[in-house]
UniProtKB/TrEMBL annotation:
Keyword entries, A-Z: ATP-binding, Nucleotide-binding
Region (Disordered): 95-126
UniProt source species: Actinomadura alba
Skewed-composition ranges (Acidic residues): 96-105
Domain MCM C-terminal AAA(+) ATPase: 225-286
Family matches, as Gene3D superfamilies: 3.30.230.10, P-loop containing nucleotide triphosphate hydrolases
Family: Belongs to the Mg-chelatase subunits D/I family. ComM subfamily.
Name of the protein this chain belongs to: YifB family Mg chelatase-like AAA ATPase
Lineage of origin: Bacteria, Bacillati, Actinomycetota, Actinomycetes, Streptosporangiales
Classification via PANTHER family: COMPETENCE PROTEIN COMM (PTHR32039:SF7), MAGNESIUM-CHELATASE SUBUNIT CHLI (PTHR32039)
SUPFAM superfamilies: P-loop containing nucleoside triphosphate hydrolases (SSF52540), Ribosomal protein S5 domain 2-like (SSF54211)
Length: 441
């Protein structure tokens, strides 16, 4: 893709005095030029214009198909053009030519094949589609309220994928600055949904288990660095379905973004940093034979433990909520119709809990409980001894690590926020601890 083809062509025309070089010099021009003179859409228009605005340019020429995306940058006049002829007319202050109304070919999608969704999930998917699974629904709500990572295991067809796909429907829409940041990433990746210049809903990215390391965390050549799935899920959900099927190196590469909220890619001459702060959801069958019932499983215990053992300890250590599901019973599937809460109802509670956390964390760089660093949990957010006993007991028994303790405390704050308790009580800490260790439903 020749993002600068248009500016190269106009420079030549300026040098030949066909257009005024002085007029051209004040303009930023972005676009790919076809041999027929048509200007085609390109990737990365939004960050390019943000950069141009920062450098003091006030007018930009962009392909018509990128016009809406370009218009997101305040203080910059956008001149959308469909052809070199239209641009020439603009530069010479002549009336625009009548352009044939041909559809612009879409910007090529990345070849990585991630299922990326950032549109209006609310319409298509709803939490009330999921019957039964009370524990999983509760864990999903806690995850949404605090930005905590989630692990779901269970037999085929128990609803793991269904649940994970509905997590974004519980999250509040993105604030303006987050929306611009997310849109920038998708603009660079070429995954902006057609007709939707600004992404305002938290994205959902579900890479396939054949995904390479570069496609997962980003990579490519120096001139064409691409954000990976971890960045496409920034401010949203990264869903690793069938987790044991991924190669271990690819999953372990997620440890850097999980720690830093960003991916740093180093090449000989430059280092690029893509934001990658997402809520991770991992799903897995308990064994490779994927039996619907435990009794039907034909795997040996060694095979079973090796299968789940493919998810490394350090990765699982970073997952706050772990749940082992059973298939919903026939009774639940048939009679839970009226009691299953909708996404709208749950999202309301999530929003209130998030507001309580944001109020407590006002004046700090952190917004949600999962952002709070460990030392802060012991300082300004230290809990009374009476609330800490479940954690103290687990530490003495050796069933909880120091990192685990911090994760439990963050989740305990979220559970307290959901229940509008100013400070976590011992049962909040207890519930968080149970979910950290792994709860069987
Ligand atoms: N709790 C549930 N409520 C309503 N429908 C369900 C539930 N669980 C499963 N289903 C139905 O079963 C189908 C399969 O569910 P889903 O794909 O989420 O299962 P899964 O646990 O991801 O299975 P797999 O391990 O095979 O990927 C769903 O499309 C849905 O129709
Ligand atoms: Mg599934
Ligand atoms: Zn099995």
């Amino acid at each position: 893709m020749l993002t600068f083809a248009l500016s190269i062509a106009v420079s030549v025309l300026g040098a030949a005095d066909v257009v005024s070089p002085a007029v051209c010099a004040r303009l930023v021009m972005i676009g790919e030029l076809g041999l027929d003179g048509r200007v085609h859409a390109v990737r990365g228009v939004l960050p390019a214009i943000l950069g141009a605005a920062e450098a003091g340019f006030t007018s930009v020429v962009v392909p018509t198909a990128n016009g809406a995306e370009a218009a997101l940058v305040p203080g910059v006049k956008v001149v959308p053009v469909g052809s070199l002829r239209a641009l020439m007319a603009y530069l010479r202050d002549e009336p625009p030519p009548v352009e044939e109304d041909e559809d612009d070919p879409p910007v090529p999608a990345p070849a990585d094949g991630h299922a990326v969704r950032s549109g209006p999930h609310r319409d298509a998917l709803d939490l009330s589609d999921v019957r039964g699974q009370a524990d999983a629904r509760r864990a999903l709500e806690i995850s949404a309220a605090g930005g905590h990572h989630l692990w779901l295991s269970g037999p085929p067809g128990c609803g793991k994928t269904m649940l994970a796909e509905r997590l974004p429907t519980l999250l509040p829409p993105l604030e303006r600055s987050a929306a611009l940041e997310v849109t920038t990433i998708h603009s660079v990746a070429g995954t902006l949904p057609a007709g939707q210049p600004l992404i305002t809903e938290p994205p959902f990215c579900a890479p396939h288990h054949t995904t390479t390391r570069a496609a997962m965390i980003g990579g490519g050549s120096r001139r064409a660095l691409r954000p990976g799935a971890a960045s496409l899920a920034h401010q949203g959900v990264l869903f690793i379905d069938e987790a044991p099927e991924f190669s271990t190196g690819v999953l372990d590469a997620l440890r850097q973004p999980l720690e830093d909220g960003a991916v740093t890619i180093s090449r000989a001459e430059a280092t690029t940093r893509f934001p990658a702060r997402f809520t991770l959801v991992l799903a897995a069958n308990p064994c490779p034979c994927a039996a619907a019932k435990v009794l039907e499983c034909v795997c040996t215990p060694a095979v079973r433990s090796r299968y789940l053992g493919r998810i490394s300890g350090p990765l699982l250590d970073r997952v706050d909520l772990k749940l082992e599901l059973e298939a919903a019973t026939r009774a639940e599937l048939r009679y839970d119709v009226d009691v299953a809460e909708s996404s709208e109802v749950v999202a309301e509670r999530v929003l209130l809990a998030r507001e309580r956390a944001a109020k407590r964390l006002a004046g700090t760089p952190w917004r949600t409980n999962s952002d709070v660093p460990g030392p802060e949990l012991r300082r300004s957010l230290a809990l009374p001894t009476s609330a800490m006993w479940p954690v103290d007991k687990a530490l003495i028994e050796g069933t909880l690590s120091a990192r685990g303790m911090h994760r439990v405390l963050r989740v305990a704050w979220t559970i307290a926020d959901l229940g509008d308790r100013g400070v976590p009580a011992d049962h909040d800490v207890g519930e968080a601890l149970e979910l950290w260790k792994g709860k069987r439903s």
